[in-house]
Structure formats: C-alpha cells, structure tokens
Amino acid sequence: MNNYPHNLLSIEKSSALRRGVQIKKADKKASSYLPEGLLRKTPPNLPSMSEFDVVRHFTNLSRLNFCLDTHFYPLGSCTMKYNPKAYDVLSSLDGFANVHPYAPEEYVQGTLSVVYALQNQLKEITGLYDFTLQPAAGAHGEFTGALIAAAYHRSRKDFERREIIIPDTAHGTNPATAAMAGCKVVNIKSGPDGRVDLEELKKVLGPKTALVMLTIPNTAGLFEKDIKTIAEMTHKAGALLYMDGANLNALIGLVKPADMGVDLMHINLHKTIATPHGGGGPGAGAVGVGEKLADFLPVPRIVFDGKKYKLSAKTKHSIGGVKSFYGNISVIIRAYCYLSQFDGNTLKEIAENAVLNANYVRVKLAKYFPAYFDAVCMHECVLTIDKGVLPAARTADVAKMLLDMGFHAPTIYFPLIVPEAIMIEPTETENKQTLDKFISAMTSIFLEAGSNPEVLHEAPKNCPVKRIDEVSAAREPNLRW
C-alpha cells in the first residue's frame, strides 16, 4: 500500500542550523570575471539540510512510485515487462556510451558489428530481407515504412497510390503516421468478431491503395485469422501490406510475418525486445522490408565485406536518413543482448507464456469483467464492465481502486471500439501467484462495486494524490508544485 504520511512530500524541510556540504569561498571575486549585470544582488535561497535528510527525502519519494521493481504492471500497449539489469550495465560500457558519434568507421567497429548482428537476428525472426535500425520509436518506424511504400510506388510511376487503409483496431499512431506521410487515411470498421471485415476491406481496396496497415495482433488482443487472405487481396490490388509489429510479443518465435505475406513492418525494440519503456523512451522502431523494398531503406546502411564493417550510402531509391548516426544505440545493444541470450525455442516459449497469462486472466475474470470479444486472445485481454450488473461503476473507478490495492492500473478506455475498456497485458514474466493476486483484487472491486459503489467513487484513498477533478485537471492544469 502506498500509505505514506503526507509530510514525506513536503518541500518545506529546510532548517537554518543544518548543512550537508560546505562550499569554499572563491579565491577571486566574481566581479573580476563576470559582468556586473550578471551578479546576484542577494544570496540564493537554497534549502539548509543535512545530507542524510536529503537522501531520506528522495528515497521515500521513490517509494511512492509504481514500477516493475515493486509492483505488477499490467499496462497493455506498452509491454511493461521485466528487463534484465545486466543489459543496462552492458549498454553503458565506455566503448558504447562514450564513443564520439562522428568517430571514423575504424574506431567504432564494435558498435557497427552489434548493429549489423541485430539486423541479422531480426531478419531471422521475421523472415524479412533487410532492416534499418535508425527510427527512434515505433511511430517513427511507421512513418519510415509509409515513406518507403510511397517511394516504391513512385519508382513504378504509380503516382495515384496515396491511400492507406487502417482498421479501427489499429494503434492510434497509425492514422497519424499515414497523414504525416502525405497520404489519405481510409478507415474501415471491424467485424463483430473484432477482426478485419473482408467485405469492408474489399470495398476500399483499389488502384489508389498504397498500403494496408494492420496491427497484428490488433489492439483488442486478437490475431487476424484471415491474414493470408488479406495479404492476397492487398497484393492483387497492387498495394503493400504493412504490419505494425508493436505487439510482436505474442508472435515472436511462433510465426514469421513474411510467411503471412507482410511486405514491411516495424518492431518496437523498446517493447518486445527488452528495453525499458517508462518515461516515454528511449525507443527504437526497427523497420524490416521484403527484398523488393530493400533499396528504399534509409541510408547510411551498415555493410560487412568479410573484414570490416562500413557505412554505405550506395542506393538508388533510398528515402534518405530518418535519424542521425546509427539509431538509439543503448536500446539496440539491449535488444542484441536479449536476442543473443535466447534461442528460437526460448523465444517461442516467451510468446506462449505471454498468451497463456493473458488468457488465464481473461477466463478467471469472465464472471466479473467479461472480455468484450468472447474469444481466445493473444498477449492481452480487453475486458469491459457489464452495465446491466454494475450500472454505477466506471472503468476509471476500477483503475483508481487498483492503485489503493497496490497495483498499477492497466490501460483504460482503449481500444476505442470497446466501451469501458480495460486492457490487461500481463506479459510472460509474471508468475501465477502474482496473477492470482491481481485477479483477487479485481474480484474484490467487482463485489465492492455491487454492494457499495460509493467506495469506488472515492478511490484512491491511500495514495499521496487523492481523487482529482478530472475536468478541471484537463482544462485548467496546475503545472506547478
């Protein structure tokens, strides 16, 4: 429970009789080397505290955080899974972390070899022909993919292909990506089973279609069972099939996207492949393509002549660079460590356990918070609130009550096609005991909501920040302490 005294958050702890360090007075007067206009007229108002007080203050503040080191973190769409600490150490080695970005090729052979090796690992996992690791995040990878598709169609003098078809179960970045790439977004509604409606797709596929962009598995946690048919329809129309691979955690080691007919895709190295995603980054949205699209990848490309790794810009149709230097190297190194540690069987087990955990939660909570689409899910389950049973409860209430019970809230109100959506992604690294505790907490919330719904509306009670006025917080945010 995050039931800490409020005074731990106080910033008024200064005492004139305490100090942590003693700073020597400067040998020279500041006026001898600073312009008069830059000199302070009064001493700075710094807090007077002992070092021990400062350490204890910030340590207690850190204990208020919900994080993977302390709590179950069922935050779907971000794959907040455990990341081995050893990778942090390896990615911080001087030879990686402190190398100058403009260092000549011969001085960065180690870094280039890691990037090159990771590209080969991703090629093996996906079945695609080649990769770039330049993009800085998943959405950046999508944008890169859209630019590659546009360049491919232009090279064929197919200038009318400016439409990108996106289902309503796609990640929210997909439509924005299409628009940023200068294309027209064509949305299609999913069928009653939460998957692509083939008849709806057929209506909009045509000579103007550049890409069909699918999130697989989609944001409802469902696999597109008709993916081979979708690929055939797309290619017959002269378009390309793009896979948003942000949910690859459910498929890694089980299926190669290229075998499903995928022409290009991005992989969120900062989600599926062991890099912390908290705080909005850093990220890496590696983009893989089939052979016919390889010449359009960003430059420079890393090539190996059998003796030396080089940066090459020899390409006829490249879209150019999308990020400076080699990409986010610290993320790339962590991903390389992850894939080097596991073999194909282990990667398959990772996906199987992710799917098993999500379905375990789905089945165990079916009586209380049923899945909106009644089907076996993949890496995440999307639950909802039956308003006929709990008319006064909202998803936000459930999320806030979970905070009081020591669990970070899952993603809520997404995907948008699911009313009162509760997206739960346990990941493969959580054990049955942890999942049972979470299921027990959700069950308690359900029972409380039925007998005493006001308790939900008052949550959270035990967190430093209590229930806020959400409307005022959105319209009149207070950005100062």
3D architecture notes:
The protein has 481 residues and is of the alpha/beta class. The chain has two domains: 256 residues, Type I PLP-dependent aspartate aminotransferase-like (Major domain) (Aspartate Aminotransferase, domain 2), CATH 3.40.640.10; 124 residues, Aspartate Aminotransferase, domain 1 (Alpha-Beta Complex). Helix content is 33%, strand content 11%. It has 14 helices and twelve strands. The strands form three sheets. The protein has a seven-stranded mixed β-sheet with strand order 1-7-6-5-4-2-3, sandwiched between helices. Strand 4, helix 8 and strand 5 form a beta-alpha-beta unit.
CATH superfamily of the largest domain: Type I PLP-dependent aspartate aminotransferase-like (Major domain)
Main sheet specs: 7 strands, mixed
How much strand?
5-15%
**Contiguous helical run count:** 14
Helix-residue proportion: 25-40%
Known CATH architecture of the largest domain: 3-Layer(aba) Sandwich
What is the molecular shape? globular
The radius of gyration computed from the alpha-carbon positions, rounded to a whole number of angstroms, is 26 Å
CATH topology of the largest domain: Aspartate Aminotransferase, domain 2
Structural class: alpha/beta
**Tally of DSSP β-strands:** 12
**Overall pLDDT metric:** 90
Give the neighbour order of strands across the main sheet: 1-7-6-5-4-2-3
CATH class of the largest domain: Alpha Beta
**What distance lies between the first and last C-alpha atoms, to the nearest angstrom?**
24 Å
Our count of domains comes out at 2
SSE series = HHHHEHEHEHEHEEEEEHHEHEEHHH
* Poorly predicted tracts of residues: 1-9
